[in-house]
Amino acid sequence: MILGKEYSVQELAMLLQAQGQITHNHRLQELAYDTRQITRPKDAVFYALQGKKRDGHAYCSEAYEQGVRCFVVSKEVYLPEDAQILQVENTLQSLQIFAGAHRHNEAAYLIGVTGSNGKTIVKEWLAQLLMSRYTISKSPKSYNSQLGVPLSILQIQPDHDYAVIEVGISETGEMQNLAEITKPNLGILTNVGTAHAAHFSSKHEHIEEKFRLFQDTPSIILSGDDAEIMQYLANNPGFASKEITTFGRKEHNDLQILRYDAEKHMAVMKWHAEEILFPFEHADEASLLNLAAVLAAALHLGFSVEECKELSAQLPSIEMRLQIKDGRDNILIINDAFTADLSSLPIALQVLDNQIQERKTLILTDIEQVNKSEADLYANVSERVNCYPFRVILIGDVISRYAERFLGLVATYPDTESFLKNNPSEKFAHNAVLLKGARRFQLEQIYQAWSSKSHQTVLEINLSHIRQNIDYFRSLLQPKTKMMGMVKAFGYGTGSIELSKLLSEIGFDFLGVAYADEGADLRREGITSPIVVMNPEQNSYDTLITHHLQPEIYSMRVLQNFESALRMKQVEKPWPIHIKLNTGMNRLGFDNDEIPQLISHLKNNDAVEVVSIFSHLAESDNAEQRDFTEKQIENFKAMSQEICSKLDIAPILHILNTAGIVNYRHAQLDMVRLGIGMYGVTNDEAAKKYLQPAVYFKTVISQINEIAAGDSVSYGRRFVAQKPMRVATLPVGYADGLRRSISAQDAYVNVHGRRCPIIGTICMDMLMVDVSDVECKEGDEVILFGDDPDLQQMADWAGTIPYEILTSISHRVRRLYIIN
């Protein structure tokens, strides 16, 4: 991460009151805490942060080998004499102290955005509005934690007029530190909902913790619809002197949301008694509330109503965030073609750098930045880009004037149209390509031209929501409990490659696949994490050994056959294996009476090494079968203990799946296996409110027909209209994975936030819905499942389970990955 301004080693030592002798007082321009993300080692300070899974002190030597010479540590580390070691009591606290000092010395007007939901999009939209007038800094992605907030603060530069900083908390006691670091001039509270509510004793306590951010803030923008928030303000005289601006649906709000005009694509709001129409493309309630928060802030900051109208029309949708998808000619397209500002550039470059393709290309347009000279701006841009060995293509007259500054320059073009005329997709075969640009350049034309599938139906996987859901399940575990991520069956239909990359990045200890071919595919895509094959077929042993996969061993036959394969391959070192025990599922696994034979065989066995012992719960999600499940757990403990004691080994023990993590925390043992829960699916009502839907099945309206009473719809004439209707045809059917059986249910889809019933029989490639009560047109987006209906509801209509719905979605439906 590039610092907002340079600091000398001596200055940093004084700020942190660190112990250590300064022998080389060089200048620091970069802060690093991950050795995989160091771009300018000679100018970097490496912070050895300690997390639940990893300790940064273990990576100091690796950082030194890369060229880093300044380190902030809280433990003794052994490095050569030319390393500048700054010793502090706690490295995270010292980073926060560093950020607080940086904030104190920078004059930027700081806007702090917090809330249970919507804070990232409010931050992004507000930053886009401000960018039209001012030089700004903003939190990268969702950097809102105890680590993310100080990192965001440290990027503020002396010439920034505004900083928009996202602030998140998950439990009591966290906000005070962040409040002291940020000290907002203006605060925005989007809402207080159920996200992270499990760690608060009441909603009142949650609200109280959120408001700690605003204790020294003169002005606050907040939702006036929440009676408990308004009551909290009324009961706390410390907020009486502050300027409060409210937004929401209720009449008393300063900015009131009246309605959405779908025909004109206008959000109709009232601002201090004046009714105003704001051009806006998104009719859902969450987007309207986010827009209201942004407009209330903009109006407070002095933007005119006319300026707000102009700017609201340009706001990208919630989905218009960094997207990753496969393209033609084996191109991996990273689409960030919605903003081109200096603050978002480093994150996009890092995403490109993290891809496994050897050839990587950056397509970059003019940068949107005001109050900064062109020469200074593009000196800064080129310096950041030149940290990476990317091929660089520049689009735009302004950036092209500074082409000589880019070391990897391939070509320049005045506009996107001229680029496409001269560059068919095959010229970029097997490349990872980052599209990073201002919206006016319409780089999405490249995205569309190079996309591998034209089918307008998509399965959208929100990787940020998956990460949030994982964080929830992690919160239920002991710090030392390991995690295996189940990515079998094409990642439950969502795509195993991107999911595996994410799980590897955030520190999962193992990945689980069903068959060796799935593991081999992951290896070919550069996944290096330990991979367990849950069903190792005998004819796949060569593949398993070649790609360093670890088999589940569930019988003596499998064990002996695998050992024979190891001997034929002349494998000398013990191969890691995972022993499966049958404790009541009666599917695969060693029975209790087979344990003595297994132990006898494994004694003095140098062919294999038992890495883990595990079993599978049959009814972990059924409270009525709790006694049976507890018996399974008891059986597993007894059987595994016999193996461990007789062989004198201490392998990883695990039995819990997603439902087990929620319902049987006492049995988490050494590791748990997380699968469907990553996508926000659980049958536990208490857990549901903390999870985010991570998979959205979407399509568009192909045609709208007016039909009369008595007209029938689709095959078999199973639906006959009782009155005149508007019927929309959607280009999706049972060949895409939408089960034909739901035709007979009271199923619906979602159009502009409204439920539209499915009518008639679902066809192979099409279905029809009733849109009589919705303002919509051909080409409008339709949500088949996501928030409402959700995946569980779709499964209920089909008379099945969410697993089957996800894994049945056709490969002709393109997968689109979203990163906040």
Summarize the structure.
With 820 residues, the chain is α/β, with parallel strands linked by helices. The protein has 27 helices and 39 strands. The strands form six sheets. A ten-stranded mixed β-sheet has the order 19-18-17-20-16-15-39-21-30-38, with helices on both faces.
Kindly describe this structure.
The protein is of the alpha/beta class and 820 residues long. 30% of the residues lie in helices and 24% in strands. The chain has a 10-stranded mixed β-sheet, with helices on both faces. A 9-stranded mixed β-sheet has the order 7-8-6-9-10-11-12-13-14. α3 packs parallel to α6 and α22 runs parallel beside α23. The longest helix is centred in the last third of the chain and has 22 residues. It starts with a strand and ends with a strand. The relative contact order is 0.07. The model has no long low-confidence stretch (mean pLDDT 89).
